[in-house]
Recover the amino acids of this structure.
């Protein structure tokens, strides 16, 4: 299993792209602005999209992706998410007002896109790759994902604040190699982080203390303009785990 970071920023500007991870050539974990950097032939290979939650920075490329490649495909793109997230996408995105409903185009019998509901704790296996929805704690219903090749695994927290369910999943993973966890705000924005249900360096350190193993830790969702400050604060608060900043273009092998 190869995982390439297409985007990992908490915003846009210059080379910054919002969250999207490409698994091999055919699976997306979230679909932020980084998806748009793929060539057309790369976009056409994407068969599955696992959505952590409904916020725009994680779903913004789904409408453009489906609209761009639908005529190139013989099978629908499958969008996986928990029921609450799918309801939001149906009501507020693919609703014929903001964007066409591609689950009804060209018709309901042979659509360009279909939804698949998953539940927290459920594992979807695709060609031997296991993708499991794990708990997240955010301002909207949300999950993270564990990606498991059978040899090693990676946990992606999604957007979350203090979250004991995440650590239960992390600590039960016997082959965990990488942890990708958000820290959106610096310590001076702790009140904003708390209100918006994100982590800051102080809360990240408290959360990492719940982890039993020693995977490599990478920080995602840093806000533009505050990445250097936030990483310095993480180095002080969570230096024991030696977290590193996730970067667009970075690749992992499981």
């Amino acid at each position: 299993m190869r995982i390439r970071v297409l985007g990992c920023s908490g915003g846009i500007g210059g080379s910054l792209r919002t969250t999207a991870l490409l698994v091999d050539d055919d699976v997306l974990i979230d679909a932020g602005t980084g998806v748009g950097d793929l060539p057309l032939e790369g976009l056409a290979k994407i068969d599955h999209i696992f959505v952590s939650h409904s916020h725009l920075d994680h779903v913004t490329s789904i409408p453009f992706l489906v609209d761009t490649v639908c005529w190139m495909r013989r099978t629908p793109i499958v969008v996986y998410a928990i029921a609450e997230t799918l309801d939001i996408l149906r009501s507020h995105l693919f609703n014929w007002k903001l964007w066409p409903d591609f689950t009804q185009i060209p018709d309901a019998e042979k659509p360009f896109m279909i939804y698949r509901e998953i539940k927290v704790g459920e594992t979807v296996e695709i060609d031997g790759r296991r993708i499991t929805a794990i708990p997240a704690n955010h301002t909207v219903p949300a999950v993270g994902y564990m990606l498991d090749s059978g040899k090693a695994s990676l946990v992606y927290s999604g957007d979350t604040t203090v979250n004991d369910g995440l650590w239960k999943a992390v600590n039960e993973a016997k082959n965990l190699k990488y942890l990708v966890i958000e820290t959106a705000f610096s310590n001076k924005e702790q009140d904003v982080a708390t209100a918006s249900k994100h982590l800051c360096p102080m809360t990240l350190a408290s959360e990492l203390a719940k982890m039993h193993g020693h995977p490599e830790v990478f920080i995602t969702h840093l806000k533009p303009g505050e990445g250097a400050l936030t990483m310095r604060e993480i180095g002080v608060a969570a230096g024991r785990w030696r977290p590193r900043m996730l970067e667009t273009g970075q690749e992992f092998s499981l």
In short: The radius of gyration is 17 Å. Residues 227-237 form the longest helix (11 residues).
